[in-house]
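Subject: complex prediction, re-run

Hi both,

The earlier run crashed halfway through, so I resubmitted it with identical inputs.
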Amino acid sequence: MTGVRDIVAPAMPAERLAMLRILVGAYGVIYLFARIGAIVGSTRYPAAQFEPVGLSMVLEHPLPAWVVIASLVLAIVSGVAFTLGWRYRVMGPLFAAVFLWVLCYRNSWGMPFHTENLLVLHTVVLASGPSAEAWSMDARGTALPEASRRYGWVVVAMCWATALTYFVAGWAKLSHSGLEWVTSDTLRNFIAYDNIRKAELGAGYSTLGTWMVAHAWVFPPLAAVSLTVELAAPLSVLNRRLGMIWCVAAWGFHVGVLGLMYILFHYPILGVAYASYFPVETLGRRILARVRR
Amino acid sequence: MAREGWRWRVNAALVWVGLTGAILYPTIPDEDGFPLSNYPMFSTPKGTTAKIYHVVGFTSDGRGYPLSPEMVGTDEIMQAYQTVKLAIRGGRAGSLCKDAADRVASSREFAEVTRLQVRIDVFESVHYWEGDRSASKTRVLAKCGVSR
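This time it finished cleanly. Structure:
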């Protein structure tokens, strides 16, 4: 019988944790590059729009532009070190802290981008464990360590963070709307509203979602499936197969959100959010085998 | 197991407890934030009216076009929406209009636009997608011209 210890800290290969460090770190660095315009652009918003969230709550006023740019540069440089596993004991926590700082500041202008929450939480979890003991600059010239619970707890903690964020989203629907969220027209009205907002702000909107608004019967089953995926998320850490099934369902949920509302949750859609549920080290081994050939 | 030491176990326990508490915490005060959130979007009951805060550009013959997010100073649709909403709520609709007019003046996409309105429009959301795109209520908060 599986005990709690085997669920929260199973023995896992160091390469799995290393591969997760590489995937999440590289994703974070690429994401920062992709958002340079938005982050630097925030220095031009009026100060009256500043509504600090997270770490930015220590600030009473917006930062000078040079501090924002310097933070961004530090985040990118430490992110590269995090990904490569270079001086990880310092660079891992440094990247997690600066990444969190930069994203908190970027989210402090009236619009929290929930698409970034899980990415930054995963980074913090990876930085708190021994994620650079394989496939890293720090581990060059050393033998691969044996599989251990020391690596497994970090991987499962990432899964747990993923599961809890979905659970909280489902819980919010139940606590704010009760089961009416499923049985009423709430989902239909949200899809109609969100697409109007996009159309009336001169942006692209979902033609599929707006077409479906005319078919009210579709929405209660869709709402039921969405809520089930969210509330069932904590079960995904109980065993590997259940976790993989849940990942497919959650990924499908995001594909549905993209199709109906034109909202791209990039981190889960690209699969990186769910990587901790899978034996991703096989991908790394294949790449290494090809490189060495 | 004993040889692997106890430090990682303490570290793991602290991270697990901290992580669980931190992610669940926003459900208690029911507050949104970053990176910890109660994920309030799309969770509250939603009626059939859609209240839209936006900037509309008009040509000299009176045709209206919603301005793209870039004209409001961002390339992100949701940030643009919040920028307009916060400007209206903060009594800054006039300055938002002038800033947008400056951007429109140098934009090829909106070359025919001669004046702007910062406004709140209310639509019947289901009717809107059935073809009736007229606003049931409109409030204009600021008007400005585009000088080229």
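The first strand of chain B starts at residue 49 and ends at 59.

- K.
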